[in-house]
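request received
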Amino acid sequence: MIKALNLRNINKRYNETVALSDINLDIEDGEFFSLLGPSGSGKTTCLKVIGGFEEPDTGDVTLFNEDVTYTPPFKRNVNTVFQDYALFPHMNVEENVSYSLKIKKIPKNEQKSKVDEILSIVKLNGYEKRKPSELSGGQRQRVALARSLINRPKILLLDEPLGALDLKLREQMQFELKNLQRQFQITFIYVTHDQQEALSMSDRIAIFNEGKIEQIDTPNNIYLKPKTAFVADFIGTTSIIPKDFAKKSLKYNYGFSIRPENININSNIAEYDFSINASINDIQFQGSYYKILCQTENINLTALHYLDMKNPLNIKIGDNIQLSWNKMDITNLDD
Amino acid sequence: MISSLDNFSNYLYKNKHILLLIFLLPPLLWLGIIYLGSLVVFLFHSLFYLDGFTGKVVYQISFSTIAELFSSPANIDILIRTVVLALAVSIGAAVIGFPIAFYMAKFTSPKIKIFFYLAIMLPLWSSYLVRVYSWKLILAKEGIINWVLAKLHLTWLLDAILSLPVVGGPSLSISYLGMFLVFTYIWLPFMILPIQASLERVPNSLLNASYDLGATRRQTFYKVVLPLALPGIAAGSIFTFSLTLGDYIIPYIIGTSKFFIGQAVYTHQGTAGNIPLAAAFSLVPIGVMAIYIYFAKKLGAFNAL
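response:
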């Protein structure tokens, strides 16, 4: 099976800063793949290497079995949706969208029908003559998508495309992006720092940290089986129990992480594998649940209390409570 | 005492337009009276005329001075000569200035950029006259250009260029070519800085987007960079064009004996005492600039603003 993308031993430095350190990545054709990490973790640099805007210091980039490591961007069959959309301000929507067709010298009437088709897909008919400055953020986003998709690229790169949109619009665009990907059946490589976005949209996720990939896996496994403390901490909320504390207080030989939804408050200790005393530092109301921030020695633990008429919240800040959980719910950490 | 001051400050806070007026009125008066007012009064003089017999200005509205300006072939020559030179200087400055501005805006580190700013501005801090006279020496027959070309056995080349009709002359320092060189040198900073500012506002992601969509560097330059730099080029050329139209020192020092608008204005308002004709001459650059900006706008030079 031909991979859409292979990255082999990619290294990239900017002066003293290591941007990418020994990156290896295989992406299947038609996959929705996310590069997720905090800012400065190297995910955007990785995308630039794939798009051809940066050359790696060492390593190979292969697109559909073709080595493109030193191929300039305009000769690669990938297109990019840039973070700031990068719409040409002196062109209207139609001119922006048909830019690549004009470059390829495709006949005018064919250009017109292709532009009409793609604009109807992103629901922007009737906006042909508008300038980017006359569009809302969401509409600009759609123009950028249309401009990149009109070529039917084999791979679409998206660099935090929803970062500038407000929450409601972002959720709607997530849904539409996913639909577009299904409709066009092309590979999406999606850079984001928003873990919720990555978890809800992706087939697989690569977690970046300090220029390295910490874990590549499905959203499900990333959440439930994080391999490193960084991944466990970065994805969702979790409590990290270091190895020495686990040995001393819990008689357990590994450091591990435990999700808040798996921690029970003041339950029957006998039913659980682990139990520990902690004091409450803060209680935060989150809508459908309370977040209970607890501390024991220098370890921070987060538990949840779901809103329920039959089960009122009867603890307060400063209380000592019993936290318990089962062995099957913890994830051992490598370090 | 304090409460009345408080009241006053509260009043100003509520009536922001009065506060605005207090701050804005002095500069507005300056602009209105000293700038526009005096210019209008001066230009209005072109509607008066000089009594040929007494040599005194007759303060009666008449178009005879303006008619005189455009009916005399000598005056028409002056106008055409000046406008053509101003156009050539603007084009020359744009051709030299654009690559420098492009390099500054897109390829320099902040430190190198400061060096470029200094290099471009530094000449402006020294005396204009000194620089023009230095050019006179550089361009003269005994000057460094002649000397270098002689050493390279290329004197024939310079002679060939100087023997060209219209632009040539006895030496570079007494020719339109020399004037063109000096004007282009003197006004170059006014071309580079606006272009650089306009290119600075073009984010690199636009260039990347263009490459990403299949455009080569050359196509990207013509379809993205140049259109977005046009307002800068237009602004720069408005400076170089109007400054050349009005200058009288360079034609005086470098030029031939043939007049330019600036010299004509200088002579008519000075020794000749013909203020109306001087005012009529001054109308021309304003008219030309208005036409120039009109066509620049028509051609879309300000679309990317």
